[in-house]
Structure formats: structure tokens, C-alpha cells
Specification:
Layout (H helix, E strand, L loop, with lengths): L1 H12 L5 H18 L7 H13 L4 H23 L4 H9 L3 H10 L1 H8 L9 H18 L8 H29 L7 E3 L2 E5 H8 L5 H19 L3 H11 L4 H8 L3 H23 L1
Antiparallel strand pairs: 1-2
Helix pairs in contact: 1-2, 2-4, 5-6, 7-8, 7-9, 8-9, 12-14, 13-14
């Protein structure tokens, strides 16, 4: 019963659930314990026994789902509580073997380090959230690439990977900033090498066909909106958007950009918000 009491205290102090919610958890867990007389070494048979007990009581589907959710939440708490006591090296080992809880535990453990590092850097045109995301990608790479037999301290390795990711993002941003100047072409340039009297601007004018005014206006409008949205996207968001526009799934984008799936989802949500914000402000 100690584990149940600790869990209920966690729901009260940390999660700040209502008394009714906590009482529901208590009833469900005690019920599960009394059916199986066991909490820590639960087998598949124990779960089926509990399910049979619920169905025999003629409970509706929603009630059964709620009770199972209570049991699941309790065991997730036990797992996460146990992971909190693990060393960085142990968590990295679990994360590499596919344990998502261990991965989340490490990301949460070092998110404050990312926030501290981010405070030292600035990327032109990027929001703080974008820079934090770059730092979290660096942390994620540290978890994937840390080798127990070669590096002594995960914290030192994570510190290095986070800084490298932030510096790379800044350098990439600066290169992107100068692309328009480095790749620009004067309209006064001659079209043909041996003919100085025909410039690009003359050539374009001669090839232009008459378009309806409303068509031109729409094209300019969408071009402007597109440029505004592009200006407000971070380099990471642009990469995600390019892959997403090509039809890649979140998982595939995550693999190609070497980033967590959650980071891809967050980036897509930010892109949509920025796009809507630009379109609405322009239409107003």
C-alpha cells in the first residue's frame, strides 16, 4: 500500500488533482490490488483477471476504460519515479534501446542546461523558442551519439553537443542571410555575349504577355505573403517545411533531420501559427 499512498501524494502535491479525482484513483488501485493481491510483479494473467472482474460487474465501456487508465497512470508513475534515480549513463543506455520514458527523462533533466546555453546566443529573425529547439536537438544528438566506453561524462558531452548545434544554427542563419546578395543578377546584364544592346530587362519586357489585372494582383499578393512567412521561419522550420511539402511523414522528417518526432510536430505547429498570423495581419 506504500506505493499507492506515495502515488496519491504525488497526485495531490505535484499534479494538484481534485479530491474527487484522487479518490477515484484510490478506489481503482485498491480494487486492482485486492483482485490480484499484488502490485509490483504484475503479469499478463493478472491484467486479464482484473478485466474479467470488471466485465463481470457489467460496467460500461467508459467506466472500464477509466479504471484501466488509472492503473496505467499508476505504473507509468512507478517507472518514471524509478528512472529519476538512474544515472545519466543508465538512462542513455535505456534510451538507445528504445525506451521513450528514459529519453524523455534525460531531455527533461537537461532542459535547464539548454535554457542557460540559449541565453548566450542570438539568431537573426529567430524567436527564443526556435533557438531552444535547436538546443534540444543538440541534446537529442548527444543522447544518440554518447558512447559509454569513450566518454566519461554525459553532462560534458551534452554541453558540447548543445553548443555545437547552436553555433551551427547561427552560422547557417548568417549564410542564408547573404544568399540574396551573393546570388543576385543585374537586370542590365546583356542577354547575349556578342550583343550589348539587349539587356535582361528588355528581354523580359518583350516576352511579357498581357494578363488580367486581378490575376497579377493575386500573384503579387501570394508572393508577398509567401515571402513574409519565409522571413519569419527559422532555418530548422524551413527544412521541416520543405520536407513536409514534399510529402514526408513526421517520422521520416525526423530521421532525415536527425531530430525527435516531437520537435518536428512542434515546428509544424509554429509554421502554421506564423502563416496564419501573417495572412490575417496582411488582410487587415
Amino acid at each position: 500500500m506504500k506505493y499507492i499512498n506515495d502515488f496519491l501524494e504525488y497526485l495531490t502535491v505535484i499534479k494538484k488533482h481534485s479530491d474527487n479525482t484522487i479518490n477515484s484513483y484510490k478506489i481503482d488501485l485498491i480494487e486492482f490490488y485486492e483482485i490480484n493481491n499484488n502490485l509490483l510483479n504484475v503479469s499478463e494473467d493478472d491484467v486479464f483477471r482484473y478485466l474479467k472482474y470488471l466485465y463481470d460487474r457489467d460496467l460500461n465501456r467508459n467506466s472500464i476504460s477509466r479504471k484501466l487508465s488509472s492503473i496505467r497512470t499508476f505504473y507509468n508513475y512507478l517507472v518514471n519515479n524509478d528512472l529519476q534515480n538512474k544515472t545519466d549513463a543508465e538512462l542513455v543506455k535505456y534510451a538507445k534501446s528504445g525506451n521513450e520514458e528514459a529519453l524523455e527523462c534525460l531531455l527533461d533533466r537537461y532542459k535547464e542546461l539548454v535554457n542557460i546555453k540559449v541565453g548566450k546566443y542570438f539568431i537573426i529573425g529567430a524567436e527564443r523558442e526556435d533557438i531552444i529547439q535547436e538546443g534540444m536537438i543538440g541534446l537529442y544528438k548527444a543522447i544518440k551519439n554518447f558512447e559509454l566506453d569513450k566518454q566519461n561524462s554525459f553532462k560534458s558531452f551534452a554541453n558540447l553537443c548543445i553548443e555545437r548545434q547552436l553555433i551551427t544554427a547561427i552560422k547557417t542563419s548568417n549564410r542564408q542571410k547573404h544568399i540574396p546578395l551573393n546570388s543576385s543578377l543585374s537586370l542590365n546584364t546583356t542577354v547575349y555575349e556578342n550583343e550589348d544592346d539587349v539587356s535582361l530587362i528588355d528581354f523580359f519586357n518583350s516576352k511579357t504577355t498581357e494578363d488580367p489585372l486581378d490575376t497579377i494582383t493575386k500573384k503579387e499578393y501570394y508572393k508577398f505573403i509567401g515571402s513574409k512567412i519565409d522571413e519569419n521561419l527559422s532555418d530548422f522550420e524551413k527544412k521541416v517545411l520543405t520536407r513536409f511539402a514534399e510529402g514526408d511523414s513526421y517520422v521520416k522528417i525526423a530521421e532525415k533531420l536527425d531530430a525527435p518526432v516531437k520537435a518536428i510536430d512542434n515546428a509544424i505547429q509554429r509554421i502554421r501559427k506564423k502563416a496564419n498570423r501573417n495572412i490575417i495581419s496582411e488582410e487587415q
